[in-house]
């Protein structure tokens, strides 16, 4: 029997011990969600807060002082430029464990979520800054850099610790034109230690690619195009949780689209020999948005791509809500929770079901409910807005 080669670098599963958890703060309303996570972070896990400038860092520190968050619990990293993408997990840094037991940082390709022809209007200097962010942080920390031209977004990777890596075709293939699946798999093995890549097809309807945001009719979503951390997560080396709309929810057109996509993914996961637990999806919430031709995204993407729409028209946005965009730390699982007073009992029951399921798979951790709506409206969740640094 041929002996398996030990990888030079591996991406550890999220449930392995952390030295720190990183967040990027942009000064947006969504920062208040992260405040609650930092406040409840388990003792002994350092919080690293990366932000734009000294003024914003001082504002955050003053707010954390008032919340009783001791300064010994965190470190500030002032970047000196606009991070713009608050979802630190996606452009990086992605921390790897080396074959010698140390840490390295992956600096993979980055094209602003597949914006291959700059349709989004993202300024070139910001794209370049985001692309260099992982190397910049590695140099500050004195860590080696593993370089790759393959576009690998942190939220697109889910690994189980024994070499199985989940990837989504709708994301990874779109981001990397010119790469074959075979060449991608070889590169994912080289930089992440993936011995087997399991290719899922598509993500849920409420994580549409932000450059093709129409779900159907008047329904829109501004997401990544199918990051795996929105709909399928390992909870151990052989079990995944899969988002699954119930039969009673299929009258909702977005739920029906999601269910069809998840049924395809379910067959792939079973064929890979994995145990699958179906989990609920949050109740759909709608947010009216009036199109404005002076707003960059409305003009460069929505109005440009959909000629049936005009300035002043109202469309309905569906946030990227998910129970699977949770964050596992050393002693906590920060779990999305959506019910609040005055909302349907169905939502409260789904929250309870998900907390119980996470407690079953992470019995040595405390389940901390977090309302992620302010982040969901920007196309992500707490997992997207964070990144773990292994010990």
Question: What does it look like?
Answer:
The protein has 391 residues and is α/β, with parallel strands linked by helices. It has one domain: L-arginine/glycine Amidinotransferase, Chain A (5-stranded Propeller). Helix content is 28%, strand content 24%. The protein is built from 9 helices and 21 strands. It has helices at 31-40, 54-67, 124-141, 169-175, 181-192, 253-271, 296-305, 345-361, 373-376, and strands at 9-10, 18-25, 46-51, 74-78, 94-98, 103-109, 145-151, 158-159, 164-168, 196-200, 214-216, 219-220, 232-234, 239-243, 275-279, 287-290, 314-317, 327-328, 332-336, 366-370, 386-390.
Q: Considering the protein shown, what is the CATH homologous superfamily?
A: L-arginine/glycine Amidinotransferase, Chain A
Main sheet attributes: strand count, strand direction, barrel closure: 4 strands, mixed
Low-pLDDT segments, ≥5 res: none
What's the CATH class, please?
A: Alpha Beta
CATH architecture, by name, is 5-stranded Propeller
Strands ordered across the widest β-sheet = 1-5-6-7
User: Helical amount among residues, as a percent range?
Assistant: 25-40%
Q: Work out the radius of gyration.
A: 20 Å
- What is the count of distinct domains? 1
First-last Cα distance: 33 Å
Strand residue content: 15-25%
Mean of residue pLDDT values: 92
CATH topology value = L-arginine/glycine Amidinotransferase, Chain A
């Amino acid at each position: 029997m041929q002996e398996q080669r030990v990888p030079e670098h591996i991406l550890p599963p999220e449930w392995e011990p952390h030295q720190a958890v990183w967040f990027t703060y942009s000064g947006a309303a969504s920062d208040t969600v992260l405040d609650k996570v930092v406040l409840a972070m388990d003792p002994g896990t350092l919080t690293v807060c990366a932000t734009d400038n000294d003024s914003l860092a001082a504002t955050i520190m003053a707010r954390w002082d008032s919340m009783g968050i001791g300064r010994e619990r965190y470190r500030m990293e002032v970047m000196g430029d606009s991070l713009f993408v608050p979802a630190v997990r996606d452009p990086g840094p992605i921390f790897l464990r080396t074959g010698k037991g140390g840490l390295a940082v992956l600096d993979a390709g980055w094209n602003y979520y597949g914006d291959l022809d700059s349709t989004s209007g993202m300024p070139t200097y910001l794209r370049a800054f985001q692309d260099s962010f992982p190397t910049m942080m590695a140099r500050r920390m004195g860590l080696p850099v593993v370089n790759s031209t393959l576009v690998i977004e942190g939220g697109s990777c889910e690994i189980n610790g024994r070499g199985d890596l989940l990837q989504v075709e709708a994301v990874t293939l779109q981001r990397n034109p010119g790469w074959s699946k075979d060449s991608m798999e070889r590169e994912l093995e080289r930089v992440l230690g993936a011995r087997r890549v399991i290719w899922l097809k598509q993500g849920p309807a409420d994580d549409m690619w932000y450059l093709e945001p129409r779900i159907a009719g008047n329904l829109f979503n501004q997401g990544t195009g199918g990051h795996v951390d929105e709909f399928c997560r390992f909870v151990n080396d052989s079990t995944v949780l899969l988002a699954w709309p119930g039969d009673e929810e299929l009258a909702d057109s977005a739920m029906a689209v999601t269910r069809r996509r998840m049924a395809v993914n379910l067959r792939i996961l079973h064929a890979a020999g994995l145990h699958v637990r179906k989990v609920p999806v949050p109740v759909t919430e709608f947010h009216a948005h009036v199109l404005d031709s002076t707003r960059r995204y409305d003009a460069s993407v929505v109005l440009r791509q959909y000629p049936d729409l005009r300035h002043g028209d109202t469309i309905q946005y569906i946030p990227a809500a998910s129970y699977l965009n949770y964050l596992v730390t050393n002693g906590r699982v920060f779990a999305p929770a959506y019910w609040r007073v005055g909302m349907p009992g169905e939502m409260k029951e789904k929250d309870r079901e998900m907390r119980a399921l996470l407690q079953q798979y992470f019995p040595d951790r405390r389940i901390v409910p977090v309302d992620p709506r302010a982040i969901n409206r920007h196309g992500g969740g707490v997992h997207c807005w964070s990144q773990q640094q292994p010990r």
